[in-house]
């Protein structure tokens, strides 16, 4: 949960930076935030959640590809929730509430997908 919170803060921080420089660019902000959060969460999950110590460009490339593919499903859930809250409340507070809910649900689902399909050969640390 701590790593999900770290990735969430990085994601929303990146979104705020984009929106500060480019007001109204919600899609660009969501893409930037997702990218920043994805990379941070991959590195943290690989090392500390799944205790995967394999190294090398080929290994990281393969794992990151699978990790990103699993994230595609959860990103749609996250974006739909964030956008839906923004459409309903028409404010940054509503948008961020939707983002927090969507990210929370998405990270829970993502853990299950990653455990099964990305880091399946690694035992999960308690």
UniProtKB/TrEMBL annotation:
It is a multi-pass membrane protein. Its main location: membrane. It is found in: Membrane. Keywords: Membrane, Transmembrane, Transmembrane helix. GO terms for cellular component: membrane. Residues 4-119 form the GtrA/DPMS transmembrane domain. GO terms for biological process: polysaccharide biosynthetic process. The chain crosses the membrane at residues 24-44, 64-85, 97-113. InterPro entries: GtrA_DPMS_TM (IPR007267). This is GtrA/DPMS transmembrane domain-containing protein. It comes from Paenirhodobacter enshiensis. The lineage of its organism: Bacteria, Pseudomonadati, Pseudomonadota, Alphaproteobacteria, Rhodobacterales.
